[in-house]
Structure formats: C-alpha cells, structure tokens
Write a structure and sequence with these properties.
- The chain is α+β, with helices and mostly antiparallel strands.
- Helices cover about 50% and strands about 10% of the residues.
- It has 19 helices and 14 strands.
- A six-stranded mixed beta sheet has the order 2-3-4-10-7-5, sandwiched between helices. It has a three-stranded mixed beta sheet with strand order 1-9-8. A three-stranded antiparallel beta sheet has the order 6-14-11.
- The chain starts with a helix and ends in a 6-residue tail after the last strand.
- The structure holds protoporphyrin IX containing FE.
C-alpha cells in the first residue's frame, strides 16, 4: 500500500519501474540477496543485557559491514559502510521511510519532521529549514549564553553556599544540569517559552520529562511490544503518558494561539531580514506563523514544535555530557580547551564572530559526537525493493533487499570503524585537524575537506559518509548549526569558570541507550572554580 501511494505521488514512469525491476532481477542473479547475507543471530537477552549498539559493533567485526540481524522471525539489515549508508540516506533516500522509528514516535510527534511520511515531510521541511537562517542563529547565541550563565550562577551559588570556609568543590550530576539547560534553550529558541527548568520544577517540565522517558523507553525496544495484547501491564504507564502529552499539548496550543493572534504575515526574505538581535520574540514559531504562504493547521504546527522540542533537547544534553566525560579523563586537553576559551573570550561572552574562533571546543563537541553519536542508529524501512551498492570492502556485488526491509545504519560502527579511524576508541579532537585522503581504499573516496569548503565542522560530505554527526541526505538534522553553536557556547562558558573532575571512575559511569546514549545513574562530577584563571 505504501509503495503504491509513493509511486502515485511521485508519478514515477513505468519505465523507471521496469528499470528497477530488471536491476533487481540482475542483482538477484549476479549479486547477493538478503537470504545470502551474513547473519547474526540476536537473542532477546541482547536487548536487555547491554545497549544494542554494542552487540551490533561486535557483529560488525565478525560478519562485515552489511549483515542481517535475526531476532526470531524478525530480521533487520545492519549497515556499517559509508557507501551503503550514502546510498540509503542520500542517493536513494526517497525509497525509505523511518519505519520502526515512525511507529514508535508517531503518537508523540504526530506528523512532525522526524516521523513524517514523505509528502508531509516535503511540505514542512521546505518551510522549517529557512527558519534556521543566519540572523536567527545569531540571536540564538544570546539565548545560549543567557541560559548557560543561569546554570553557572546556580553552580556559583552552590559553591558559595556549601561552607563558610570558602567551599572548594561541589558534587553535581552534570547530565541532569545539561538536560535542564538544553530544555530551557530549546523552549526559548523554538517557541519563546521559558521553562526555567534550571531553577525550578513545574507540571509542564515534569510532563516533558515523562514524555521523553516514554519515547526513550519505546525506542529502546526496536520492536513495539506495547502493541501486543500481552503488554497489558503497561496500561497505567500509558495512562500517565497520555496525561503528560495532554499537558504539553495544551501548553503548545496556547503558545500557537498567542503567536497567531499577533501574526504579521510577510515574505520569507523579509522575515529573514528582521532585526533579530532586537526582536522580543525571535523564535522559530514566530517565523513559521508569520511566513506568507505557509498556512498550516494548528495540529501540524504543534507536531512540528513537539518534534523539535524532543529532537533538540536530549541530543544536545547528551553531547555535552559525553564531551565533559571525555575531557575529565584528559586533563591536558581540558587545559588546552580552557586556554582557547581564555584567549578567545577572556572573561567575556561569545559573539557570532568569536564563536567561530573556538575551534578546539567545537572539535571536542564533534569528537564527542563521533564516539557517542546521537542517535547511535539511524532507522529506515525500504518502501520498495532496492539494490544496495557494494561496500568499500568485500561484498562488491551488494545485495538486493525486498520492500519492507528494516534497516539500521549503525553510526556508532561507522564512527568507530577500524577501517577509517586511527585509534578509533581514543578521544582525540586533534584528529580532525589533520587532512586525510583515503583514496587508496578502492571504491570509497575518503576524507576530503575540499568537498565542503568553509564547512563549520567536519561533516558527512567531507568524509563521504564515513562520519555522520548529524546524519546526511535530505533528512539530515535541520538543527545542526543551532546544536553545534549551542554546545560550543555551553561548554566554553563552563570551562571558562570551572575545573571538572569525575567523582568516580570512568568505568562506574554506565551507558544506557534509547534514542540517545546516556548514563545509567548520572554524570557525577566534582566542580571547582578554575585554579588557573589568568584573568
Ligand atoms: C534529525 C542529530 C539537535 C531537529 C536529526 C538526525 C540526526 C540528528 C542524526 C537525522 C535522523 C535520521 O536521519 O533518521 C542531532 C544531534 C543534535 C541535534 C546530534 C545535537 C547535538 C537538533 C536540534 C534541533 C533538531 C537542536 C532543532 C532545533 C531535528 C529535526 C530532524 C533532525 C527536526 C528531522 C529532520 C528531517 O527529517 O527532515 N538530528 N540533532 N536537532 N533533527 Fe537533529
């Protein structure tokens, strides 16, 4: 049914269909089919004992960069190869939708960009992407800074209040702090609503966390078990989930109503030329409501806001968490980062220009995303049969996959692949400063910065899909620059003021994963005022 609707919508010619069918046939005869793919047998315990992406990595080393993962009758194709990832994400992107992920997220995000069907996605992406224009991002730097300063003020108060004898350090769960910070930022940036979660709790904040928790819980189980009758025990939890959703939805509905009441309809170009630094409301919601010709019903707008609230919150909190986790184990790199902050910012606040100069901090964020990609797996489902290309290594003929095949692109595997990275498990932000070309690896073009001159960060284009910090192709993250600037500002301002140490051993920080990778019991750190402040 899905294939039919796609074909009708896109009005693919019969000729294309015939070509597709004959390609598939040729492939089936000459190359491999899903039946002949190396197979890893997953046990249900693999879902519970440890994060799934760890097992996917071991199987990648054992079975190669395209293999089938069988869980009883259910099978997934796991991809850890840049050429195959490029094919699925970019070259043949519209042959895939979000599959299992959409099933999971639809009750929360409705037809928001992440789970949206292709038709809705095309309409909404066209309208939302221009909202992240340069003046908007510039205005956001002020929000990132204000919110980070609120967090720092809180830490300073805790440091001062702890003991009359000039308390030297405090112990804090920085993951929780980053989560509050990222929530406040996304609320202000996307719909000009101050959750104020750094300093207080409210029913709306609780509802956001409740919903995130449920989204997380659902995405940990790549199989939607709650849909089967045996899952009745979850009913109370589902009731709580529904009431959380209701609270957030009515908050968002109120914001949408307000924005619509004060609507000033204008062309996109004029909207982008507004004096963003002095606007009272620079939010994306304002932009979407004021844009001429972008009329949309309130339900869609709410889905868009909800999607960005969730997509932009946990991810950024996670990248900050792992960046600090890695830095705390590498004091020399922490000092180097602090030295950069001192020389670029001194005691001041970041600006659009100075932010560009915080290159080392930015690479720390990027390296944290390499080691802990958010999310660790990209999920797709083939809408029609497809022929995957051969990978960079072995499997030169590729495989034919039938319509309906569920695919996991393991970004975690790509980012720690021994084939592309020296010391793949080491934290080495400096690695991105060395230009590399791997042209010797046949069939894969390697890292080539000239492919994306002036790029803000080492991205999927430069690395030819071996490195996907924000995904790639048409469904790439729409908030990549927002997120990168936000993380850079927050990390820089933290390091400007504080030294950070882990409270326990690195091994005691256990990983769990849902949509993002996070810690089991928080990132407990010791925070003290900078001892080596030059200013
Ligand atoms: C999509 C990562 C922050 C909004 C994605 C995707 C990735 C990603 C990998 C692609 C998913 C896929 O192909 O299946 C991240 C990371 C972030 C971050 C690592 C922070 C460090 C944000 C922020 C926003 C945002 C701040 C919004 C303000 C979105 C949206 C999509 C998306 C709307 C769906 C795009 C589409 O399908 O057209 N993100 N993201 N993300 N992200 Fe982000």
């Amino acid at each position: 049914v899905r294939c039919q609707s796609i074909d009708t919508n896109e009005r693919k010619s019969d000729r294309n269909l015939l070509d597709n069918a004959s390609n598939l046939l040729t492939q089936l005869l000459s190359g491999g089919s899903i039946g002949s793919m190396p197979t890893a047998e997953g046990a249900v315990t693999d879902l519970f004992d440890r994060p799934l992406f760890f097992s996917l990595y071991d199987w990648f080393l054992e079975h190669g960069s395209v293999y089938k993962l069988a869980f009883g009758p259910k099978a997934f194709v796991v991809v850890s190869d840049p050429i195959v990832a490029r094919h699925i994400l970019r070259e043949n992107a519209f042959c895939y939708d979000k599959g299992v992920l959409a099933d999971i997220l639809e009750p929360i995000m409705g037809k928001g960009l992440i789970p949206a069907d292709l038709d809705t996605w095309k309409q909404r992406r066209r309208v939302i992407a221009p909202g992240f224009h340069t003046s908007y991002l510039e205005a956001m730097i002020k929000i990132f800074t204000d919110c980070s300063e609120r967090t720092i003020l809180k830490f300073n108060k805790l440091l001062e209040g702890e003991s009359p004898n000039d308390q030297k350090s405090i112990e804090l769960d920085l993951e929780a702090e980053f989560s509050s910070l990222a929530l406040d930022i996304i609320g202000l940036g996307v719909f000009n609503y101050d959750f104020g979660s750094v300093t207080k709790e409210s029913p709306v904040i609780k509802a956001v966390y409740g919903t995130l928790f449920e989204a997380e819980h659902r995405s940990t189980f790549y199989i939607p078990y709650w849909k089967i009758p045996l899952a009745r025990w979850i009913v109370p939890r589902q009731r709580k989930f529904q009431s959380d959703l209701k609270i957030i939805n009515s908050c968002l509905d109120g914001l949408i109503r307000n924005a619509k009441e004060s609507r000033q309809e204008t062309d996109v170009e004029k909207l982008q030329q507004r004096d963003y630094l002095n606007l009272k409301d620079a939010s994306l919601l304002r932009f979407l409501v004021d844009m001429r010709g972008a009329d949309v019903d309130d339900r869609q707008l709410r889905d868009d806001l909800m999607t960005m609230l969730i997509a932009g919150h946990e991810t950024t909190a996670a990248v900050l968490t792992w960046a600090v986790f890695l830095l705390a184990q590498n004091p020399t790199k922490m000092k180097k980062a602090q030295a950069e902050v001192d020389s670029v910012l001194g005691e001041g606040r970041p600006t659009f220009e100075s932010l560009k100069k915080l290159q080392y901090i930015r690479l720390i964020v990027i390296e944290a995303l390499r080691l802990y990609p958010q999310p660790p797996l990209l999920i797709r489902r083939a809408l029609k049969s497809d022929v995957l290309p051969g990978g960079y290594k072995g499997d030169k003929d590729g495989y034919a996959i039938p319509a309906g095949t569920d695919v996991f692109i393991s970004v975690y595997n790509l980012h720690r692949s021994p084939y592309f990275w020296d010391s793949p498990n080491d934290f080495e932000p400096e690695r991105f400063m060395v230009q590399r070309k791997n042209e010797d690896i046949e069939g894969w073009a390697g890292f080539d910065p000239s492919r994306s001159p002036g790029a803000l960060y080492p991205n999927e284009v430069i690395s030819d899909f071996a490195f996907l910090p924000f995904g790639g192709g048409p469904r790439k993250c729409v908030g990549d620059q927002f997120a990168l600037m936000e993380s850079t500002v927050a990390l820089a301002l933290l390091l400007q003021k504080f030294d950070v140490q882990l409270k326990g051993t690195p091994q005691s920080v256990e990983l769990v994963t849902g949509a993002t990778i996070h810690t089991k019991n928080g990132l407990w750190c010791k925070l003290s005022k900078r001892s080596n402040l030059h200013h």
